[in-house]
Amino acid sequence: MIHNTKIAVRNFLFVLMAAGLFVAGCKDDDITVEENITKVEVQITGGGIDKKFAWEDADGDGGNAPTIETITLLPNVAYSAHIHVYDGATEINDEIEGESNDHLFTFTVTGANLTVSELNTDANGAPFGLESRWTSAASSTGTVNIKLYHEPTDKSNASNPGGDVDFDVTFPVQIQ
Question: Which residues are bridge partners to 167 per DSSP?
Answer without folding.
Answer: 148
